[in-house]
Fold:
Amino acid sequence: MDAAQKSRSHESPRESGGALTDAADWDSYYEGLDVSRLDTLSRLPSVFDTLLSGRTGSVFELGCGGSPLLARCARAGWSVSGVDFSKPSLVCLERYLTQHQLAAGNFLCGDIFQIEPNELSESVDFLVSAGFLEHFKNPAPILKKWSTVLKADGQVISAIPNLLGANARVFAHYDPVFWNQHVVFDPAAVDQMHVDAGLRIVQKAQYLGRYDIHMLIPWTKISARFPHPQLYRLFKLATYFGIGLPLSRLPLEPSRRLAPYIVGVYALSKRSFSAGPKPSA
Structure:
């Protein structure tokens, strides 16, 4: 065993997965988040709409705290559950569900590498993530471990922000600290991480969604560059009406430059669910 192999053998699962954030990076944000903001976000168009609309069942989200997607699914009658390491983010989501008298499923709080999903084995129709996988250098072990919650005919739907687009350049320039907590994946890399996790491709990862001027743009950081708040407000309005709104309305095919997300759909390989004993005749 060489030195590099010895080093890897002593790595924790979190280290080997290349985790780039911890709970403290998210707690302060969700502690101050108004539940009405979650409601607003959950009512905006979503790249998941065409994949989940018209269906019902159970959906489990990786990194589910404060999730607009689960809030949206719960209103549509889905059974929602998930896992997150930020307690305040889970409290935010659970408070939203309670206020809207929506059923709250099984929400697990803790490190995704340490929690075991055994009790949820083969119980979920969809395993989803939205803006989660790009925070790990090697997401395949996470996908392999947590895909065990899927029923035999279940699917994985993974969405990551398009960190190759025009907005990503602004993000990297104005908020380099948070930018460095992300890994840039293109569609081929997104497909490969799922294949490495033992999944098969149902729908190849692709750029998806209309241009969104707010996606990835660190407006708070940008506002700090302006000497007067009024100047910033004028700049933001001019940017929205001069760039954001026109581009979002153009009938353009989703592209690397303008699409907000990369989205792929995957399923268990036949080997993943055919290894058990065959039923007797």
Notes: The first strand starts at residue 58 and ends at 62.
